[in-house]
Structure formats: C-alpha cells, structure tokens
C-alpha cells in the first residue's frame, strides 16, 4: 500500500515509446496505434502530455491513414476500426482533429455497419460488440452520429444482453466485463441507457469484486487491474459506482505498481504493461 | 529450441527469394538486435513487406506468410494478405485448417487466428461441422473458459449445425468444474436456441432441478444461482414465485449456512416480487437476524443480513433496503 508513484510511471511510459528496437516492440508493431492512445491518455491523466513531441505523433498518425478513410495500427498496416478509433482519440487528445477529412473517416465507419445493426471490424467482416463501441465512440467524436443507423445499432447491442444483465460479444456470448464496458459505453453515447435494467447490471458488476479487493471480468476468474477500468467505468456510466468497496480496490491497484521501475501490472508482483497505467 | 529452427536458412540465402529486395519497417531507427531469433523475424518481415507491396500472390508468398505467422501470429496484416493469397490460388483449405490448428495450440487467445479459422470454415461449409466442434473441444480442453473458442463454437452451431450432443457436452464440462461460468452460459445458449429442444419453456422444469442440484453441491457458486433466475424471464415473475422449488432451495441452503449471500439475495428478490413466505422461511430469517418476528419487515431484515454477510457490497444492500417496493412482507 502507499501512494501512486507518478514520476516513475511517466518515465516508464516514455521509455516504452522510445524502445522501438526491443523484441516486444517488434511483435507489437501492428498495434502501435492502440499503445499510443493508452500511453498518451495515461500521461495526460498524470498531467504530463507535454513530455511528448505532439507534431511528430500527429504526422505519424496521418501516415497510418488509408484512402478509404480508415487507419491501420501502424504505417503499412491495413485499416481496421480498432485503430481508426485510437487514431481519432489521439488527435482529439492533442486537439488536432482539424487535420482530418472528417466525413471521409465517418463514412469509413458508417460503411462497416451491417444490416442487423452490428459493426464489422474491417472489410473481412468479423463482428463483435467491441466494434459497435468503436464505431459509435469514433463517429461521436467526429460529431457525425447521424451517418449511422443508431436504432439498429442499439437493438443489436441489446440482443447481446444475457440472463445476468451483462453483455457478450455476439448474441448468446458469455457476459464479460470488457464487453459490458463496450455495450454500456455505446448505449450511453447514444442516450439509450434507459433501455436496460441498471440496477440488475450494477449488481452483476459489483459482484465482480473479490475478497482481495480487485475486480474480475467473469465469475470465478482471477482479478486483474484492467477490469478496474472496465468495471468501474461501466458502473460510473450507469451511476452505480458507490456499490463497490473503493478502499479495498485502491489498495489492490496500488499493490500492483512496480515502485522501482514504474508501470503497473495485472496482479501484484506480475510484469508491468503500458495499457494498465491508465 | 528444436532442430527445425536451428536449421533455418535466412531468406537472403534462399535461391527462390534472390529477386526480392526486402523492405524495412519505416517507423524510426532500428538498431541491430543481437538475438538470432529477432534477426530472423526482422528479415522475414522485410521480405513480407516486399511481396505485400508488390501484391505478389504466389505459392512462395503463402509459404512466407506461414513463416511470419509462426513467429508472430498477432500481425493482422499478414493474415489478411494470406487470405488474399489463398483465394487467388484457390488453395486447399483443409491444409489451411491443419496449419491454423498448429498455430492455435500455443496461441489460443489470439483474435486473428479465430477470425481466420471462421473464414476458412465458412468457405468449407457443413462438411467441417464435426471437425470444428472437435477443434474447439481440444482448445477448451486446455482452457475451459477460452472466450474465442466458445464464440467459435456458438457460431459453428448456428451456422453449420451439430446441436445433437451439445447439452451432453455442457453437462460433461460442468461435471469437470461446476464453477465454469462459460459452460453454464453455453447450457443456457443450448436450451434457449437449439432447434431440437423446444426452447426455454419446454426445458424449464428439468433445468430448475439441475440448477438446484448444483446449488446444493456448492451454494457459494454464483453461476447456478444466476442460471436459476434466468430460467424465468422478466415477464414471468409469477411463475418464479409460484415454483416452490425455488424458495425451498433458498431455505435448504440457509438452514445449513446462514452466510450464503446468493441464497439471501434470491430470497430478497422473491419477497420483492410478492412471495408469501412459509413459516419455516420467516423463522429462519429472524433466527439469523437474532430478532423477534413482531413488527419487523421481512425483506428489510434480509437486507440487513446481507449487509453483514456481504460487507464488501454493503452500500448496494443498503440501497436495496431503501428501495423496497411498497407493501411487501
């Protein structure tokens, strides 16, 4: 227990950005856009966004865009909805959305919507409620929600609701805290939270807190810091975050810090990961 | 390291690749990386970029993507290009299935692999139903909660069929681990969606007994409690409170174990929906709460007990206590 070692975490994130030659960085090359978003958001939350070269990042982001309007995970990688959202988020973070042809990006997203309201991740057609969230969040950031069929998008998400009040990645898929975040997020952005039983879902979400104070993503799974984000932000969106034990959760997260080298891991004493620093 | 890897010949020394000029990744400086495996990987990626940019859909390109994927199955662009090559060459997709299986064994949580598998299975159609069910069983044998494997399996059942033994399969997994929430979810999926079982209404009676038996074996298991509740839809609360097996199950657990939050919680829901409790049930509530029965609201008392036995969620139960529907016991 103790405090959040902010300076160490800032150093850790900046070092990840610079280590382009590490093996980890090579095999993650294709999803660098996601890493950039998570790392920069963490820096922003710690008030240290000024520590990165904003023009360099913006020009790199633009090099990842394709003619269709979508973005790849890095230069030379195919466009995908996951990286298109991250790219837009990074630009919003730097307040440089003006560099985009907004309609071009929004049209790319809108084209990924299917007849049943779901969204594909790219032209290959994989469907997942993650992509519903990506699409809705991205197109909302671009102020172009009118380009998609919101009613159908919402009805697909509601079809993924389970007997426990949670959501899965497709109709019938097991409830999972990460998918709950995506579905609740999409419903919140489209003003549709009135369509779900918030009390019932809130209880499932707070039931994710285990004895150690950490949160898991599904019943009988181990707690992991990433679910602190997925579960907590879902509870905040449905206005039920007071239902979990905050002190116990705080203790759990602080125990997952690497106090010497910076960074936060999934569980106490495991290796650190940049996405968890948020 | 096995012998295959030790004998690996770099692309620059292979005759069939001598006409290709490798293309390095251009996202910044790339100092020499000392470990041999990393050198191989960088070189293979450089050759991949070259054939990708030239859009060369040839047998050697297919072989190259196999090597790159073996080294890094997460790179989605390589998988995309591989699909284009397979389509252009009209390649034998049965061979592709064996390749995927080999990669999946050590990377079973990789999105790309599953997406690719589904693409190939979709093209091959119903003839691979059995093979796909066996494939997911193999992966679930290693990790019975693998989300990708379950998603794939649900897709196979809905798109290709093979429902016949699915309930039996769920049963077997629950016998192995009664806490497996994924298997409970699949069971619900089967009883509500299988075209052969007649739907939830037809299955309910049997399933209530099944869930109650699982609760009896271990009352601290969240999954069967939720499953039991799920057998009654929102519009069906009357059937829920009228099924005496449900309230009896709560009482049976609470007789032996006054601290089981799931039992108290279901009892609270039943009371909120209008259950008129039996004498035995009320008695047990007041006994655990250590208070006398006169002038005390039963549902409120259950909330107080829950605040104590499930102290981590005490504010939730507090909220429930203040939001009880009017005119209940």
UniProtKB/TrEMBL annotation, chain A:
<dbReference type="GO" id="GO:0048229">
    <property type="term" value="P:gametophyte development"/>
</dbReference>
<dbReference type="GO" id="GO:0004663">
    <property type="term" value="F:Rab geranylgeranyltransferase activity"/>
</dbReference>
<protein>
    <recommendedName>
        <fullName>Geranylgeranyl transferase type-2 subunit beta</fullName>
        <ecNumber>2.5.1.60</ecNumber>
    </recommendedName>
</protein>
<dbReference type="InterPro" id="IPR001330">
    <property type="entry name" value="Prenyltrans"/>
</dbReference>
<feature type="domain" description="Prenyltransferase alpha-alpha toroid">
    <location>
        <begin position="5"/>
        <end position="274"/>
    </location>
</feature>
<dbReference type="InterPro" id="IPR008930">
    <property type="entry name" value="Terpenoid_cyclase/PrenylTrfase"/>
</dbReference>
<dbReference type="GO" id="GO:0046872">
    <property type="term" value="F:metal ion binding"/>
</dbReference>
<dbReference type="InterPro" id="IPR026873">
    <property type="entry name" value="Ptb1"/>
</dbReference>
<comment type="similarity">
    <text>Belongs to the protein prenyltransferase subunit beta family.</text>
</comment>
<keyword id="KW-0637">Prenyltransferase</keyword>
<dbReference type="Pfam" id="PF00432">
    <property type="entry name" value="Prenyltrans"/>
</dbReference>
<keyword id="KW-0862">Zinc</keyword>
<keyword id="KW-0677">Repeat</keyword>
<dbReference type="InterPro" id="IPR045089">
    <property type="entry name" value="PGGT1B-like"/>
</dbReference>
<dbReference type="GO" id="GO:0005968">
    <property type="term" value="C:Rab-protein geranylgeranyltransferase complex"/>
</dbReference>
<dbReference type="GO" id="GO:0006888">
    <property type="term" value="P:endoplasmic reticulum to Golgi vesicle-mediated transport"/>
</dbReference>
<keyword id="KW-0479">Metal-binding</keyword>
<comment type="function">
    <text>Required for male fertility and root tip growth.</text>
</comment>
<comment type="function">
    <text>Catalyzes the transfer of a geranylgeranyl moiety from geranylgeranyl diphosphate to both cysteines of proteins with the C-terminal sequence -XXCC, -XCXC and -CCXX.</text>
</comment>
<keyword id="KW-0808">Transferase</keyword>
<dbReference type="GO" id="GO:0048364">
    <property type="term" value="P:root development"/>
</dbReference>
<comment type="subunit">
    <text>Heterotrimer composed of the alpha subunit RGTA, the beta subunit RGTB and REP; within this trimer, RGTA and RGTB form the catalytic component, while REP mediates peptide substrate binding.</text>
</comment>
Automatic annotation (TrEMBL), chain B:
<dbReference type="Pfam" id="PF01239">
    <property type="entry name" value="PPTA"/>
</dbReference>
<keyword id="KW-0808">Transferase</keyword>
<dbReference type="GO" id="GO:0046982">
    <property type="term" value="F:protein heterodimerization activity"/>
</dbReference>
<dbReference type="GO" id="GO:0005965">
    <property type="term" value="C:protein farnesyltransferase complex"/>
</dbReference>
<dbReference type="GO" id="GO:0048509">
    <property type="term" value="P:regulation of meristem development"/>
</dbReference>
<protein>
    <recommendedName>
        <fullName>Protein farnesyltransferase/geranylgeranyltransferase type-1 subunit alpha</fullName>
        <ecNumber>2.5.1.58</ecNumber>
        <ecNumber>2.5.1.59</ecNumber>
    </recommendedName>
</protein>
<keyword id="KW-0460">Magnesium</keyword>
<dbReference type="GO" id="GO:0004660">
    <property type="term" value="F:protein farnesyltransferase activity"/>
</dbReference>
<keyword id="KW-0677">Repeat</keyword>
<feature type="region of interest" description="Disordered">
    <location>
        <begin position="1"/>
        <end position="29"/>
    </location>
</feature>
<dbReference type="GO" id="GO:0009788">
    <property type="term" value="P:negative regulation of abscisic acid-activated signaling pathway"/>
</dbReference>
<dbReference type="InterPro" id="IPR002088">
    <property type="entry name" value="Prenyl_trans_a"/>
</dbReference>
<dbReference type="GO" id="GO:0004662">
    <property type="term" value="F:CAAX-protein geranylgeranyltransferase activity"/>
</dbReference>
<dbReference type="GO" id="GO:0005737">
    <property type="term" value="C:cytoplasm"/>
</dbReference>
<comment type="function">
    <text>Essential subunit of both the farnesyltransferase and the geranylgeranyltransferase complex. Contributes to the transfer of a farnesyl or geranylgeranyl moiety from farnesyl or geranylgeranyl diphosphate to a cysteine at the fourth position from the C-terminus of several proteins having the C-terminal sequence Cys-aliphatic-aliphatic-X.</text>
</comment>
<comment type="similarity">
    <text>Belongs to the protein prenyltransferase subunit alpha family.</text>
</comment>
<keyword id="KW-0637">Prenyltransferase</keyword>
<dbReference type="GO" id="GO:0009414">
    <property type="term" value="P:response to water deprivation"/>
</dbReference>
<dbReference type="GO" id="GO:0007323">
    <property type="term" value="P:peptide pheromone maturation"/>
</dbReference>
<dbReference type="GO" id="GO:0008360">
    <property type="term" value="P:regulation of cell shape"/>
</dbReference>
<dbReference type="GO" id="GO:0005953">
    <property type="term" value="C:CAAX-protein geranylgeranyltransferase complex"/>
</dbReference>
């Amino acid at each position: 227990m103790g405090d959040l070692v902010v300076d160490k975490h800032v150093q850790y994130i900046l070092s990840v950005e610079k280590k382009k030659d590490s093996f980890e960085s090579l095999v993650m090359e294709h999803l660098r856009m996601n890493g950039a978003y998570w790392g920069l958001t963490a820096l922003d939350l710690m008030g240290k966004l000024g520590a990165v070269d904003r023009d360099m990042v913006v020009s790199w982001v633009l090099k990842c865009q394709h003619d269709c309007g979508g973005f790849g995970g890095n230069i030379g990688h195919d466009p995908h909805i996951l990286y298109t959202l991250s790219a837009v988020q990074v630009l919003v973070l730097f307040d440089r959305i003006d560099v985009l042809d907004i309609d071009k990006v929004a049209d790319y997203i809108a084209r990924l919507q299917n007849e049943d309201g779901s969204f594909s991740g790219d032209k290959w057609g994989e469907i997942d409620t993650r992509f519903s969230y990506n699409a809705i969040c991205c197109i909302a950031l671009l102020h172009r929600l009118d380009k998609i069929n919101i009613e159908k998008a919402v009805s697909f998400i509601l079809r993924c609701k389970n007997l426990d009040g949670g959501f899965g990645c497709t109709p019938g898929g097991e409830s999972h805290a990460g998918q709950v975040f995506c579905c609740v997020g999409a419903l919140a952005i489209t003003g549709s939270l009135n369509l779900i039983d918030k009390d019932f879902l809130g209880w499932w979400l707070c039931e994710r807190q285990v004895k150690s104070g950490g949160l898991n993503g599904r019943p009988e799974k181990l707690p992991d810091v990433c679910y602190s984000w997925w579960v907590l932000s879902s509870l905040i969106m449905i206005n039920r975050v007071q239902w979990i034990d905050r002190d116990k959760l705080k203790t759990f997260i602080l125990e997952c810090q690497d106090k010497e080298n910076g960074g936060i891991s999934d569980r106490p004493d495991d290796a650190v990961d940049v996405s968890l620093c948020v | 390291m096995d012998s295959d890897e030790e004998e690996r010949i770099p692309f620059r020394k292979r005759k069939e690749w001598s006409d290709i000029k490798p293309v390095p990744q251009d996202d910044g400086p790339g100092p020499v990386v000392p470990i041999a495996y990393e050198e191989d990987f960088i070189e293979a990626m450089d050759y991949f970029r070259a054939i990708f940019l030239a859009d060369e859909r040839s047998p050697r390109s297919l072989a190259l993507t196999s090597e790159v994927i073996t080294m890094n199955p997460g790179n989605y662009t390589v998988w995309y290009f591989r699909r284009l090559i397979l389509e252009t060459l009209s390649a034998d997709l049965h061979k592709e299935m064996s390749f995927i299986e080999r990669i999946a064994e050590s990377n079973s949580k990789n999105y790309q692999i599953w997406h690719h598998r589904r693409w190939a299975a979709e093209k091959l159609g119903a003839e691979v139903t059995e093979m796909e069910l066996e494939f997911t069983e193999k992966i679930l044998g290693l990790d019975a909660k693998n989300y990708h494997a379950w998603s794939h399996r649900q897709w196979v059942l809905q798109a290709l069929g093979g429902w016949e033994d699915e309930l039996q399969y769920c049963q077997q997994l629950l016998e192995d681990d009664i806490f497996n929430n994924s298997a409970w979810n699949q069971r619900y999926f089967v009883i509500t969606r299988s075209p052969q079982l007649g739907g939830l209404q037809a299955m309910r009676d049997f399933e209530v007994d099944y869930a109650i038996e699982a609760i009896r074996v271990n009352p601290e298991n969240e999954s069967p409690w939720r499953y039991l509740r799920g057998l009654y839809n929102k519009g069906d609360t009357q059937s829920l409170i009228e099924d005496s097996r449900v309230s009896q199950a709560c009482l049976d657990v609470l007789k032996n174990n006054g601290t089981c939050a799931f039992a108290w919680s279901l009892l609270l829901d039943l009371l909120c929906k209008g259950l008129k409790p039996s004498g035995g049930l009320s008695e047990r509530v007041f006994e655990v709460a250590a208070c006398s029965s006169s002038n005390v609201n039963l549902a409120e008392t259950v909330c107080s007990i829950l605040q104590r036995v499930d102290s981590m969620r005490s504010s939730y139960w507090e909220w429930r206590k203040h939001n009880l529907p009017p005119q209940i016991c």
